[in-house]
């Protein structure tokens, strides 16, 4: 085994959060890491691209089952073809996710170093970050588990803190970890900043797979045992690795901080002077975004008058704000948020109320993405629903039927190949086809442009669970 092989760093991106504080843009069906909030790429894509280069292997993405096709497509968009996408059947916090990734890496080489990071953090100085990773990788070979502490710029109450201990010999930025502190109040945060001993906890870690597994065996053996069984019994599905549900559901829900970082004697911290944010609120996004002369951030069809230090975002809807300061206004196709910037952390409480009221807008967007493209509800009423379907080139829906509804498909653009019972029909632009209740059917795009179809549903029950799949290119028969 060559030294170059041993020193490879495996980027591991954790993409399990829902980002409810950035509602109504971020929702469980399409969370913040999948949105382009600061650049033309999504936060996930920007995170993955930080780990590109000769010192890195192909990445591992740990995500939930519902986002698998969205993430696979976003990886393809940036030219990442060989990533391992590890599917958690149920969310179990960062410690089980890191255990699963460590076990996966150790199957090939327990001496490989992992660089674990969240998919939804922003770092603007990529090369500087990679330099810190290189320094951390050297410490990792000395059996250290290294976290990244960010030099604080203000008394932030939304972050955890790390107290630096003694400087580590022969390391430029490495320190022992003296203590971890949960999110402090403002007075305590101010005192910590003034002391000069504290760093923001970024949630990034660097360690050898073998080191992490040894520490988990020591401090949380039951968790490691359950995750190992779930990994050993995983199944490969297309480009995904499916962790075994019955074993993973037994795993405790615990963060890596509580499970390992606060217990191990091998903890170290790199004091990193990086521009970093976890974008935990609309105020946090305003803080790191480019602003106009009045301190405003505006995106979309936004018109401002006598407004200052505000964040205003609108999807397609003309949005005007007059005579307000320090506010957040976010308009989507099906929801509007208005809040004072200083109260933007409380948006999570609004989402909790929406969930309690069983409002689907709490967790789902009007536009729903599928591996074949997406659909969007245009209108609905008693016994009818109208949707727009956009099918990607070469993609097709499952072979399916419905027990409670019939459908009309009208082709707006492109060419549709429609399976209806024993027939296979080509439907051109401005043509339509009727699918009676109970008829076996499928829609495919055989053309070279996206296929746009208006679907008119009618029947006694129109929910998505009235789909009986008999065949599916994307293995969605479960």
TrEMBL record:
Name listed for the protein in its UniProt record: mannose-1-phosphate guanylyltransferase
Lineage, highest ranks first: Bacteria, Pseudomonadati, Pseudomonadota, Alphaproteobacteria, Acetobacterales
EC number: 2.7.7.13
Keywords of the record: GTP-binding, Isomerase, Nucleotide-binding, Nucleotidyltransferase, Transferase
Range of residues in the leader sequence: none
Broad class of enzyme this protein falls into: transferase
An example Gene Ontology molecular-function term: mannose-1-phosphate guanylyltransferase (GTP) activity
Ranges of residues in domain Nucleotidyl transferase: 11-294
Every Mannose-6-phosphate isomerase type II C-terminal domain range: 358-472
